[in-house]
Design a protein that fits this description.
The structure is a homotrimer of 282-residue chains. Chain A is α+β, with helices and mostly antiparallel strands and 282 residues long. In chain A, 18% of the residues lie in helices and 29% in strands. In chain A, strands 8, 9, 10, 11, 12, 13, 14 and 15 form an eight-stranded antiparallel beta sheet that branches. A seven-stranded mixed beta sheet of chain A has the order 2-1-3-5-4-6-7, with helices on both faces. In chain A, helix 1 links the parallel strand 1 and strand 2. Chains in contact: A-B, A-C, B-C. Chains A and C meet through helix 1 and helix 4 of A and strand 1, strand 2 and helix 2 of C.
């Protein structure tokens, strides 16, 4: 789902009717809150109470509960398609109420807001990071901060401040590092690559943490991919296998994907987000 | 659900505070993408990147996968309630990646954007069509265009261009015809009318493709309606049958609807979208 | 989920870039319509057709069908987090088409729009009510008003009028009273308090209608709470019981909540919205 570099989704509008100065601040939300409860609406109320002109776009609220790597993947997939200056808020936060930090990561073209648990790390991996700011004690937070709903009490006010033009550096001290997921999600040992399923889309296609570059050591045509007890052939397209058959291929985001031609790999292989995937020489 | 002609949902606001020039462009989205994946958010990112002032309203993203007639019906139901100048984008697109065309259909009061597979055809049926434009090769598309996600690469940029004031005729050649669903969805043979279930709402009411005018040849009181192996009586209101009993009636959109008084017809009759319905003389 | 008074989610933005005059009108929607059908999109079309600058935020559309008390609770939970002047529309309306009135309740800091069946009553309970207006026959309604969809035909046009600056008093006669849920949802008899489950969040935590003040007559440590045939201990925190064990506590909204430490109380106790809860001396 991620954007090849050659595309420019944020190209300037053809019409001159839209002046640069008229662009309202854009905030995206990615959470595991679901849409049943009022949590997402409450976050929007806090943001719009403080930044009335902000535009808010839902990426998804159906990240599986507390699935940090899945949320990180979906944020990485969506972020490249938003315009320069977008503020991306991601809240998948099993550590809420503990001492985990709250971060703003400023890149050359966007700001990312969320807990320091890796949720932001895949999205910023391909971008030039300018600054990582610890906003855990930013003055703009709602007080008292609850122990359970930092989406409302911390991240929404931070997003509103950024939307109002506050610079990240004004919100807290710069720090040197952040939790990064990459190394946890892909591991090499004696000629085998171990990864995980990061996302199952609603067609049942399974995106894994294993990237094209991880496979560089192999010759692509001679891979053996094991998932959920099944061995899946590697091909260049879905059509490389008969209808109803499982197949592994590199998707448009250059990630290893497991699919079933004309069907659901999640259902067929009985596999969920987080399941291990193994690649070795055939 | 469709609008009787006598209603004017887009009547001018009473307050003079809202000048005509201040009306931001309005874009609606109707898809089968669901809300689990980031696809809808990505489309919004592309639209707002190019048309920052556009307002985007979700009609629904829960059209059953690849159910073109269902999507066409839901678009027809919703479109009359949006104001003059609204840009309606509908993406239910099993032919994505093939040679099916991408269209803008300009009517007297709206623009409709989507693949040329019938998805737009029910909505434009009751309106004066000014122009049908083939936008398959419009310059505003993202490049390269993917083979699987024209919602992002083709339809979102087209919607953004229209929101920025680009006229449909600037986006491609005018064409004479488009795929129309109507004839496929209602068929007459030897005194019998054959239709299909177009939509099951969340109460389980089933809207069919058979309209009041299709029934003109019958005297309404003497119809025999067959669906899912059941024969259902035709009445003028739900209350024409006992609670818990199935009934057929003409709904507020002048379409034949199958319901259960106080219950779910979809559950009771074991019927889904696409199921055949037959009307004959009793 | 409700807001302690000490928090100020609608504090003025730090940036002076946002002038007060630039704040667009904000409308929230709380319904039992779900997101499968185009009903919510149609309401937004009607609102934006008449109030093009309004911002619309979904609180939730997943109130269980016709569950007035649940909707009232969710509206009460969300409303305090929205800024001054927000227009809250709530449509859970089993009496649509009957003679139940349509209301606007004007408080010191917001307007509430919905049917007079109690759906608005919990949200306005803690606020100074300025005026209750019967808008059942307001001229701004769509004509003809349907018998089944007042969200579109009555409440959306009322919300749009308020967003355009029309004052509630211009929309109909003031009335003295409205349907209030409170007394129905908490009952005392011979030392026992009887309440109900108002909401089950997506973690399975159960919020009840019993408030801190209802428990004042008891000494908190000596309560016996009965729900779904189980007796649940009262503690001050989740951690007051072992993981996997059910517990009752006062939540951040000062309502009695039934939870399972690390699990789902709804699943464990087999209990749904509307289930009775009983508190007596241990």
């Amino acid at each position: 789902m991620a954007a090849p570099r050659s595309r420019r989704p944020d190209a300037a509008p053809r019409s001159s009717a839209v002046a640069a100065g008229a662009r309202p601040p854009l905030v995206t939300l990615t959470t595991d809150f679901g849409t049943h409860d009022p949590f997402v609406g409450i976050m929007k109320g806090v943001i719009l109470g403080r930044a009335p002109l902000a535009r808010i776009v839902d990426v998804t609220h159906e990240v599986p509960p507390q699935a940090i790597a899945a949320g990180a993947h979906v944020l990485r997939s969506a972020a490249p398609w938003f315009p320069h200056g977008t503020i991306h808020v991601a809240v998948v936060d099993p550590g809420v109420g503990t001492r985990r930090r709250a971060l703003v990561v400023e890149t050359v073209d966007a700001c990312f807001v969320g807990p320091d648990n890796g949720i932001l790390s895949l999205a910023v991996e391909a971008r030039a990071v300018r600054r990582i700011v610890d906003v855990s004690r930013a003055r703009v937070r709602l007080t008292p901060v609850s122990r359970t709903f930092h989406g409302r009490d911390v991240f929404a006010p931070i997003a509103a401040a950024l939307a109002n033009g506050v610079r990240p550096v004004e919100l807290g001290p710069s720090v040197r590092s952040m939790v990064r997921l990459r190394s946890r999600e892909v591991r090499r040992s004696s000629g085998t690559i171990h990864g995980r399923v990061l996302w199952a889309d609603h067609f049942g296609n399974l995106t894994t943490s294993i990237a094209r570059r991880d496979l560089a050591a192999f010759r692509h045509r001679h891979l053996s991919i094991t998932i959920g007890g099944h061995v899946v052939p590697f091909r260049s397209t879905y059509a490389g296998v008969p209808v109803g058959t499982s197949v592994a291929l590199l998707n448009s985001a250059d990630l290893l994907e497991i699919a079933v031609n004309g069907g659901s790999a999640a259902a067929r292989l009985g596999v969920r987000i987080g399941a291990p995937v193994r690649v070795s020489r055939a």
